[in-house]
Design brief:
The structure is a single chain. This protein is about 25% helix and about 25% strand. By secondary structure, the protein is of the alpha/beta class. The protein folds into 2 domains: about 180 residues, Rossmann fold (3-Layer(aba) Sandwich); about 140 residues, Rossmann fold (3-Layer(aba) Sandwich), CATH 3.40.50. The strands form 2 sheets. A 9-stranded mixed β-sheet has the order 7-6-5-8-4-1-2-3-9, with helices on both faces. Strand 6 and strand 7 form a beta hairpin. Helix 3 crosses helix 4 and helix 6 runs parallel beside helix 9. The longest helix has 17 residues. The mean pLDDT is about 95. The structure holds flavin-adenine dinucleotide.
Length: about 350
């Protein structure tokens, strides 16, 4: 019989985050399908608050590694804590939310417990009594489903793949495990966080809308001039009012390197597409963007797609958007901002 462990990292004094709640929902369903119990293991400076927020999740037992040494993401200490917890729980299946902190250690963790790890999983199901996981390949073009005989099997669940569990808080009894860190596991110190200016405020993975700006915003317009400054203020005002997440085409983010008029807040982290990101927002609006395949492939998970382009023959018109507004995006977005400001 499988023994299932949900392994997560806790922020001191805070309830379980969305990614942990998503993994809790996935583990709870998996355990029910397999008719088996499941446990939770947490790592952090202070874990009781997270544990309490998961007290009514259905988990049978809570384990934890706690202390100042485990406050921030650090490969050496996170790995030793995770190893101790997996060994203590004797789990055969370990599910972790696929955050950057967890993804950094899962492959080494699988080596230390003589198991296997798979990351970026978007589904964990039971088919004919066999656990089957799925993930996307080749820049989200193909979905594959597979199983593995090796145990422990460590599964990193991609954030946003499962609806988060909705739980009422309670009181969890946590069995604490002591992990003595050797000095060389403390060498790395996290002094703070730095994010690129602009991007920090414009990329919002949980936003309901993805707003994509294309190179057209910086190109010469009907009057023979480019209007990059106007474009900047229109786009920033819209983002501020709508709280949409900002995406870009490759052409636009590449322009800064080519000495063209640019939008100062745009970086390569905003790029959506084949060589960019594949975000998961319910809706998307593309503006001044041609809708070429290498860009639109990044829209795979956007459920409702609209575009504004002056060209009625742009790529969006060829079955890639639900609605194409053939119009000047400067005028459309200025009007939208006016309505949003009312
Ligand atoms: C290997 C490879 C990988 C790639 N990866 C990516 C990727 O990850 N992401 C990506 O985005 N691209 C990628 N590309 C590039 C991609 O093929 C396109 O070149 C790019 O997406 C075009 O960007 P764009 O639509 O912003 O610019 P353009 O093609 O220049 O289109 C600008 C559009 O703006 C419109 N426009 C201009 N003014 C207005 C206005 N006032 N109102 C409304 N519309 C207006 C024009 O009609 C035009 O359609 C890749 C290409 C290759 C070869």
């Amino acid at each position: 019989m499988e023994k299932i462990l949900l392994l997560g990292f806790a922020d001191a004094g805070q309830a379980a985050d969305k990614q942990l709640l998503e993994a809790a929902a996935a583990v709870s369903k998996l355990a029910a399908d397999l008719n088996t119990a499941w446990d939770i293991a947490l790592v952090g400076k202070e874990i009781q608050t997270v544990a309490n927020s998961l007290a009514n999740s259905g988990a049978a037992h809570f384990y934890g590694v706690e202390g100042d040494d485990f406050e921030t993401a650090r490969y050496a200490s996170d790995l030793l804590a995770a190893e101790a917890l997996v060994k203590k729980s004797e789990a055969t299946l370990v599910i972790v939310p696929g955050t950057s902190r967890a993804n950094r250690v899962v492959s080494a963790l699988s080596a230390r417990v003589n198991g296997r790890a798979d990351t970026h999983l978007t589904g964990i199901t039971v088919r004919d009594g066999k656990i089957t996981v799925s993930r996307w390949y080749y820049r989200q073009r193909m979905e594959g489903a597979f199983a593995r005989p090796q145990r422990p099997w460590i599964l990193a669940l991609e954030p946003g793949s499962v609806a988060p569990a909705v739980l009422s808080a309670g009181t969890a009894a946590v069995e604490k495990i002591t992990v003595e860190l050797p000095e060389n596991a403390r060498r790395t110190k996290v002094l703070g966080m730095k994010t690129p200016a602009g991007t920090a405020q414009t990329i919002r993975p949980d936003a309901k809308l993805l707003f994509v700006a294309g190179a057209g915003w910086t190109k010469k317009q009907a009057d023979g001039q480019s209007h990059a400054a106007d474009a900047e203020s229109i786009i920033l005002q819209f983002l501020d009012k709508s709280q949409a997440s900002l995406g870009s085409t490759k052409s636009l983010v590449d322009m800064s390197g080519e000495g063209n008029a640019v939008l100062s807040f745009m970086t390569h982290l905003n790029q959506v597409g084949q060589t960019g990101s594949t975000p998961r927002h319910p809706k998307g609006l593309a503006t001044c963007c041609h809708g070429e395949e290498p860009h639109v492939v990044g829209w795979r998970f956007i459920k409702e797609r609209r575009a504004v382009n002056v060209d009625a023959n742009c790529g969006w018109a060829r079955g890639k958007a639900d609605v194409l507004y053939v119009a000047d995006a400067f005028a459309v977005m200025a009007k939208v901002n006016e309505l949003l400001c009312k």
